[in-house]
Design a protein that fits this description.
With about 120 residues, this protein is mainly β. The chain is built from no helices and 11 strands. The strands form 2 sheets. Strands 2, 4, 5, 6, 9, 10 and 11 form a 7-stranded mixed beta sheet that branches. Strands 1-3-8-7 form a 4-stranded antiparallel beta sheet, with no helix packed on it. Strand 4 and strand 5 form a beta hairpin. It is globular.
Length: about 120
C-alpha cells in the first residue's frame, strides 16, 4: 500500500488546515488508518486514528476537540481537519495504515507509511 500525503503548509496561530492522504491500492475492507506527527527534536507520536469497519476514532489528548479524522472510501482518501492550530502543532505529519482491526495510536502497530507533509504554525 502506497500512501501519499498533501495539504501541509504554513498557517498563523489559530488557523486551519486540511490534510489528505491517498492510499493505493485500496487496502481492503478491514483496516485502520492514522495520522502521526513528528515535532522538531521530538519522537513521532500518534494523534488520530480511524477504524474503517466501525468508523470508530481515537485522538491524542493534545488534539482532541481541535482535529478531526475522516475517511472517504470512494476516493481511498484519509483526511485530517485541523482547527485552532498552535505553534506546538508544528511538525511533519505522516499518514499510516495497518491491515488490522481496531484503532491504534501506536507507531509499531502500523505497517505502511507515507513520506510526510510539513505543517508550520507561527
Amino acid at each position: 500500500v502506497q500512501l501519499v500525503e498533501s495539504g501541509g503548509g504554513s498557517v498563523p496561530f489559530g488557523g486551519s488546515l486540511k490534510l489528505s492522504c491517498v492510499a493505493s491500492p485500496y487496502p481492503g475492507s478491514d483496516y485502520s488508518m492514522g495520522w502521526f506527527r513528528q515535532a522538531p527534536r521530538k519522537q513521532r507520536e500518534g494523534i488520530a486514528a480511524i477504524y474503517t469497519v466501525t468508523g470508530s476514532t481515537a485522538y491524542a489528548d493534545s488534539v482532541k476537540g481541535r482535529f478531526s479524522i475522516s475517511l472517504d472510501n470512494t476516493k481511498n482518501t484519509l483526511y485530517l481537519d485541523m482547527n485552532s492550530l498552535k505553534p506546538e502543532d508544528t511538525g511533519i505529519y505522516y499518514c499510516a495504515a495497518r491491515l488490522s482491526t481496531g484503532c491504534s495510536l501506536s507507531e509499531p502497530d502500523f505497517e505502511y507509511w507515507g513520506q510526510g507533509t510539513q505543517v508550520t504554525v507561527s
